[in-house]
C-alpha cells in the first residue's frame, strides 16, 4: 500500500515494514541535511499546524521539516483560544475548512481520539501531534530512529519506560512499537501511574516481556539504592539495582503529566521516585542510552546532560529528518526506498454497537455530539471490543 494521502493517528496505522520505510527515508534526509543539500520536494505544498495544547518540539520540528523540504507553513498555535473552537466550532467543521487551505495538517488536541475524528472529516492527510493521553505516533517514529541510531537495532533491547506511564501518550505508542519490534520493556512508574489496562492488553497480545517496578529511589544515609516492586511488595538491595541497571539498554524518562491529573492524584506522585542523577548513571551500562521526549521537570538531573549517554537533545534533533520523511511520503513526493508488500488494515469495525458508549470520559466521542462511537474487535479475542478512537476496552 502506498503512503500517499494516508493519515497517521496511531502507530498501528503503519505496519512494521512501513515504519522501517519511514526510518530508512529519514536516514536519507539526515544525510542530505548533513551535506547541506537543498531539497525542494515540497515546493508548492502547504503544511498547516493546528495545536490546541502547548508544544515546543513537535510543532517547530514539523514546521522546520516542511521548510527544509521547500514547502510553506501556516502555523496556528493556542488554537483553543485563537480558533473558532473558542466560539463552539467542532473538530469536523474546523478540518473541513483547513483542508481547503493546506495539503497536510498536523493537529495536537487534549482529548483522546480527537485526531482520528479529524481524519474522518479530512480529504488531506492528518498527522497527529498527540491526542490527549492516547498516542503520539510521530514522537514514536523519532524515538525508534534514535534507538536505531544509538543502539543499532531494536529487537531484543531492554528499554525502561520511567515516569507517568498512565497519562503519558509518548510511552503508549512507544510501548506498542517496542512490542511489535520485539524489544523487552521494563516499566518504572510511581504507584497509580502504571501503564493503563488497554495498553497492557495490547502488549500482552504481542507477547511482550514486561517487568514492572514502582520507583528508582535513593535512600538512606549511605546513599544505597533500593528498588520497590509493587506486585510482590519486595524491596531489593543495592546489588539488585546495579543488576537492574546493567540489564537496561535504554532508559526512557517522561515527566508527570500534571495537566491530566484528577484532583486527588495531584499530591500523590513525585519525580524524585524515578529521578536519574550522576550516581545512578554511574551504575548504568557504558553503552546505555538516556532518552526523554522533553520537556523535563525534575526527573533528569542537569548533571546528566554532559554524559555521552544523554541522548535527549540528539533525539529532539532527529525529529527533523523523521518528520521530513513522513511529510514527503504522505504527500507522495517521495517513494519508499524498497517496494512495500500490501499492508492489511488490522482493525475490523464491529457491527451493532449503537448501544455502546466509550467508557473513557476523555474520549472525543463523549464530547463531540455528532460523532458516533465505533468499536473494533480485538485480534485474537473477538469477544473483546475496543474504542476505534481511543483504544480503550469496551465494557461488556
Ligand atoms: C511530549 C508530549 O507532548 O506528549 N512532548 C513532545 O512532544 N516532545 C511529552 C510531554 O509533554 O511530556
What are the key terms here?
Rossmann fold, 4-stranded parallel beta sheet, alpha/beta, 11 helices, about 400 residues, 14 strands, 3 domains, single chain, globular, binds N-carbamoyl-L-aspartate, 5-stranded parallel beta sheet
The largest β sheet comes out as: 5 strands, parallel
Q: What are the bound molecules?
A: N-carbamoyl-L-aspartate
**Biggest sheet: strand arrangement:** 7-6-5-11-12
- Structural category is alpha/beta
Number of helices: 11
Which percent range describes the beta-strand content? 15-25%
End-to-end gap: 35 Å
When the domains are counted, the total is 3
- What is the CATH C level class of the largest domain, in words? Alpha Beta
CATH superfamily (homologous) name of the largest domain = Aspartate/ornithine carbamoyltransferase
**N to C succession of SSEs:** HEHEHHEHEHEHEHEEEEHEHEHEE
Radius of gyration: 21 Å
Topology at a glance:
Layout: H1 16-34, E1 46-51, H2 57-68, E2 72-76, H3 79-82, H4 91-98, E3 104-109, H5 114-120, E4 126-131, H6 137-151, E5 158-162, H7 169-180, E6 184-188, H8 197-205, E7 210-213, E8 215-218, E9 225-229, E10 234-236, H9 238-246, E11 250-253, H10 278-283, E12 289-291, H11 312-330, E13 375-378, E14 381-387
Parallel strand pairs: 1-2, 1-3, 3-4, 5-6, 5-11, 6-7, 11-12
Antiparallel strand pairs: 8-9, 9-10, 13-14
Helix pairs in contact: 1-6, 1-11, 2-11, 6-7, 6-11
Bound molecules: N-carbamoyl-L-aspartate (NCD).
Amino acid at each position: 500500500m502506498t503512503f500517499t494521502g494516508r493519515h497517521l493517528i496511531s502507530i498501528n496505522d503503519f505496519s512494521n515494514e512501513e515504519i522501517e520505510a519511514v526510518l530508512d527515508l529519514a536516514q536519507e534526509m539526515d544525510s542530505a541535511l548533513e551535506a547541506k543539500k537543498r531539497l525542494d520536494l515540497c515546493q508548492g505544498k502547504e503544511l498547516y499546524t493546528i495545536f490546541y495544547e502547548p508544544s515546543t518540539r513537535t510543532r517547530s520540528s514539523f514546521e522546520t521539516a516542511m521548510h527544509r523540504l521547500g514547502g510553506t507553513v501556516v502555523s496556528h498555535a493556542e488554537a483553543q483560544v485563537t480558533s473558532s473552537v473558542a466560539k463552539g466550532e467542532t473538530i469536523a467543521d474546523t478540518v473541513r475548512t483547513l483542508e481547503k487551505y493546506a495539503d497536510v495538517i498536523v493537529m495536537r488536541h487534549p482529548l483522546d481520539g480527537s485526531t482520528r475524528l479529524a481524519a474522518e472529516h479530512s480529504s488531506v492527510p492528518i498527522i497527529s501531534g498527540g491526542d490527549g493521553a492516547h498516542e503520539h505516533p510521530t514522537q514514536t517514529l523519532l524515538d525508534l530512529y534514535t534507538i536505531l541510531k544509538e543502539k543499532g537495532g531494536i529487537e531484543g533491547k531492554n528499554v525502561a519506560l520511567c515516569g507517568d506511564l498512565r497519562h503519558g501518550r509518548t510511552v503508549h505508542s512507544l510501548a506498542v512499537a517496542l512490542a511489535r519490534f520485539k524489544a523487552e520493556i521494563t516499566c518504572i512508574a510511581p504507584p497509580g501511574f502504571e501503564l493503563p489496562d488497554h495498553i497492557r492488553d495490547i502488549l500482552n497480545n504481542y507477547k511482550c516481556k514486561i517487568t514492572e517496578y514502582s520507583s528508582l529511589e535513593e535512600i538512606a544515609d549511605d546513599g544505597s539504592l533500593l528498588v520497590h516492586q509493587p506486585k510482590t511488595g519486595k524491596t531489593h538491595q543495592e546489588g539488585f539495582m546495579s543488576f537492574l541497571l546493567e540489564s537496561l539498554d535504554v532508559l526512557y524518562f517522561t515527566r508527570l503529566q500534571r495537566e491530566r491529573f484528577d484532583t486527588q492524584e495531584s499530591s500523590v506522585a513525585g519525580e524524585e521516585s524515578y529521578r536519574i542523577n550522576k550516581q545512578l548513571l554511574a551504575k548504568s551500562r557504558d553503552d546505555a542510552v538516556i532518552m526523554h521526549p522533553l520537556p523535563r521537570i525534575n526527573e533528569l538531573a542537569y548533571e546528566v546532560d554532559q554524559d555521552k549517554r544523554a541522548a535527549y537533545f540528539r533525539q529532539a534533533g532527529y525529529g527533523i529528518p523523521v518528520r521530513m520523511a513522513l511529510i514527503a511520503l504522505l504527500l507522495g513526493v517521495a517513494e519508499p526506498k524498497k517496494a512495500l508488500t500490501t499492508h492489511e488494515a488490522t482493525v475490523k469495525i464491529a457491527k451493532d454497537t449503537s448501544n455502546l458508549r466509550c467508557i473513557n470520559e476523555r474520549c472525543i466521542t463523549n464530547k463531540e455530539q455528532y460523532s458516533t462511537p465505533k468499536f473494533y474487535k480485538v485480534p485474537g479475542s473477538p469477544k473483546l471490543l475496543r474504542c476505534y478512537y481511543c483504544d480503550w476496552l469496551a465494557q461488556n
